[in-house]
Amino acid sequence: MKDLEHLSPLHAATASSLMAGALQAALIQTLLRKKMITDEEGREIYEQALLMLETSQAVASSQEVLEAARELIEQHLRRH
Fold first, then answer.
1. Which of 80, 79, 56, 12 is nearest to 69 (CA)?
2. 18-39 burial, b if ≥16 CB within 10 A, otherwise e?
3. Residue 53 near residue 70, CB atoms below 8 Å
4. What's the pLDDT tens digit per position in 34-57?
5. Exposure b/e, 43-55, CB count within 10 A at least 16 = b
6. What is the DSSP letter of 59?
7. What residues contact 4, with CB distance under 8 A and at least 6 apart?
8. If phi over 0 gives left and psi between -120 and 50 gives alpha, with beta otherwise, what is residue 41?
9. Contact residues for 57 (Cβ-Cβ < 8 A; gap 6+)
10. Is 44 helix (H, G, I), strand (E, B) or coil?
11. CA-CA distance, 25 to 9, in Å (whole number)?
């Protein structure tokens, strides 16, 4: 296992975010593939994430980062 202590705080946060996003997407896809949730329920998860993002706007440290996150969720919703 690599020592991650050498990462800058920004790179550590980015890595953490990428890991969390990948795990969440994999979980949703697994639930869909195993028919544990419907396609509509999978879509609702992303819609709920978008709503949560919108309601946390007031505490977001960077409007640019918030807008980028919103666009990523909306892109996923447009594909499905």
1. 56
2. eeeeeeeeeebeeebeeeebee
3. yes
4. 999 999 999 999 999 988 888 876
5. bebbeebbeebee
6. G
7. 12, 15
8. alpha
9. 66
10. helix
11. 24
The pLDDT value given to residue 1: 46
Q: How far apart are CA 7 and CA 15, in angstroms?
A: 9
Structure tokens belonging to residue 48: 């709920």
Q: What share of the chain is helix, strand, coil (3-state, %, to 5)?
A: 80, 0, 20
pLDDT, position 47: 93
Distances (CA, A) of 2 to 5, 6, 11: 9, 10, 14
Domain ranges of the chain: 9-79
Q: pLDDT digits over 24-37, tens only? A: 989 999 999 999 99
Task: State which amino acid sits at residue 14.
Answer: T
